[in-house]
Amino acid sequence: MSVCSICGGVGFVRVVNSRGLWVSRPCECQQAEREQRRLAAARIPERYRYYTLDGYETAFRGADSSLGRAHLTARRFVEAYPVDTAGKGLLFVGSIGVGKTHLAVGVLRRLVQERGVHGLFCDYRELLKSIQNSYNPQVQTTELELLKPIFAAEVLVLDDLGAQKPNEWVWDTVALILNSRYNDKLTTIITTNYPDLPAAAGGLSDPERAAREQTLGDRIGDRMRSRLAEMCVRVEMAGEDFRQSVKRARFG
Question: Engineered SS bond to 239: which of 25, 64, 77, 158, CB 3.0-4.6 Å?
Fold first, then answer.
């Protein structure tokens, strides 16, 4: 194991302060170590480990202008946090592959690194499956143990909201999570592939309902969609699937 060349491994250095007195302060190596612990605690998946705001591309040929606006909003959000964001988060809305998760992770990473935030990344579908699995008597983890870090995270990224087929249990669970964070004024950053529109009207026939594009209201219920409007600033993103167009062209 290498030893810090600045502090020699003791964790602090001696410096002269503004009054000309020798004082001790934590070494940069200690600050870097704490930052790495916070990043590890955020549980950003390996696939997204290197997603950063600086690495988000908006200048490729055919890029929709909404991507540049979304990128700017994400940067400004980080700069404004926490004083001017007042507990509000971001809701990234758009089709598959436009970079919603990239921006959400980029914001989370920047807040952890620059603001010392204790954050958490959570995949919506995996969370619901884990909660359902906790009802199995052979599983040691309880629902409360799974939800406790979700409730407590200073900044939560909830990725792919609405991905799970909706039913009353799903709606109740979403309501529990969102209402808890709303009441505690905690920042939630959300991504979804579903347009931020109300649920289908009750008068639609089954064929009409099947042919109609699903909305966020359909997937989480209009009551929780309304709650999101209070919790988050909506960020609309449009364009082709970046993974299918730009990245495929690179490797031809």
Answer: 64
